[in-house]
């Protein structure tokens, strides 16, 4: 269940485990007997083992739909959660009407900032943050109404696109709600996109107004303004008034507060003079709500057109999989709001009156890079109950904790591993483990505030080892989901009482899934024991297509339902849960005719403690796979010291002996995971530089940009394949 190389939890002496189990059982009987009687373990086991989806047609290819626990197969796909709430402006209205004084959006106050010199000579900016300051649902709604009215006063027209190019923060959501209310389709762009990609998106969507931050205006946007000739108004979300000299003629820069004030004035004379209609033009369900530019893992990003009804259907399906979701929940928002996972998660929260406290990857935890030592990270202050995460972040938490376990004393490590194995056994039976949670895992759980009850994972496959670690050490279920921008982020989410790993659950109530045979890869719906094929998602959550582009990946069936061909290969298990097993674009045919799934190789090797990130690569005219590895600095430094090697981090990574040692370790890990010999990289290159969205080598969801990685390492590819 874990892949930590030197001390696997399930390697412990069976006698020790039996003694530990007996002690915990006696203590539990004496102390927690009432809890055990009321725990509902039998119900949980029944839920986890029940059939969660079935083929509507009876054929193994599907389509598969979720099963209702009382009535069998879902006969009709669900498209909305509240009667009459069929557009996104009504979601916010509904929240403000039901929970007017309830906290809605929260931001921590910055108390101080300072530069801290690191031992390697680099300077890191550190912050000390205060408590969260909250806007109520009513205040948030009014702020959005005023901002939208102010934008209209500046010439923004209904059904004309407006761009948001900003970090995840409360102002992003206020600007988005203003767009929903006044029917301004939002063009969302990742804050880490490069200049050409930003200019492409703004020009393709004919943007005249853009909402951004002071930092992004200065660092990214200002340099390309001359390449965006239609742009007239830049609205900066930072609250402090600032003068903005040096901008091209014809471009006006405003502060968000000033635009909101403009929109709050009754009978605004400027509006009358300009003849502008600021009265709200309510959107239709079929109107475009968002043009979401993908992160561009395969080149120039494409804008996905998502209607109001698409997002409503998607969040309806997602909300159904989160048990007991209500206004008592607190969500921490830190992933890019320009990504469909974060936008959908926050809209789910708003639809149920939850609090949303904003954070960032640099301030998330007490140990995060921007948090000054001794002060509190955002999770410690907010204590969220709900959180969405991409596997990259969870993998880091897992590796950091397991490294600390290795540094424990023998007694502490033995206790941790015994507790780990005991809890793994108990949750497989439907039980929780309050004693272990309280005495052993409390400190690990406190890394995310100590109150997380549901963790949603999306954006990429989550390894079985990391998922099990989250279940056990963070004491919460992990709902692993599968969806794409093209399906409004919705597709599947595993049920919270399903503790199996490596699967993404059954179709959501808004979706159905069918499997299409892929002859080249050898995947067929008639395969035994489970049907396999390319995943096609259909339902009201499937988007309208790409902006100004045609695509054969979108289909419409005889009944008028839209489908999206994902390019991912899946198999349905007998209980109706889906497992992602391959991807068409990741499949490479080697010289001898063997097919290699690069994603499969990466998923296996990424679990190695020496690996922070890895990209497998293969040419069809070659007979073997190669790899680029971002090594774990702590593990590799220890290995270098054992070999008597000294030097800078770059020198250690470039040392041939280090490459050979890491390749040997990876080969052992691959063989133990039963990879075929032809799938195991024969040569690797260690990269001293981590891959971040800022480097342009991974997306904001930390998916590999294979095209950019190939260009970046072209010289190494030629070297490892025996070229010049």
TrEMBL record:
InterPro entries: AMP-bd_C_sf (IPR045851), AMP-binding_CS (IPR020845), AMP-dep_synth/lig_dom (IPR000873), ANL_N_sf (IPR042099)
GO biological process: one example: long-chain fatty-acyl-CoA metabolic process
Lineage: superkingdom: Eukaryota
Catalytic activity: a long-chain fatty acid + ATP + CoA = a long-chain fatty acyl-CoA + AMP + diphosphate
Transmembrane intervals: 24-45
EC numbers, comma separated: 6.2.1.3
Database matches in SUPFAM superfamilies: Acetyl-CoA synthetase-like
One Gene Ontology term, aspect cellular component: endoplasmic reticulum
Coiled-coil ranges from the UniProt annotation: none
Gene3D superfamilies tied to this protein: 3.30.300.30, N-terminal domain of ligase-like
Keywords linked to the UniProt accession: Fatty acid metabolism, Ligase, Lipid metabolism, Membrane, Transmembrane, Transmembrane helix
Ranges of residues in domain AMP-dependent synthetase/ligase: 127-547
Group of enzyme by EC: ligase
GO molecular function: long-chain fatty acid-CoA ligase activity
Family the UniProt entry places it in: Belongs to the ATP-dependent AMP-binding enzyme family.
Listed name of the protein: long-chain-fatty-acid--CoA ligase
Organism of origin: Esox lucius (Northern pike)
Organismal lineage: Eukaryota, Metazoa, Chordata, Craniata, Vertebrata
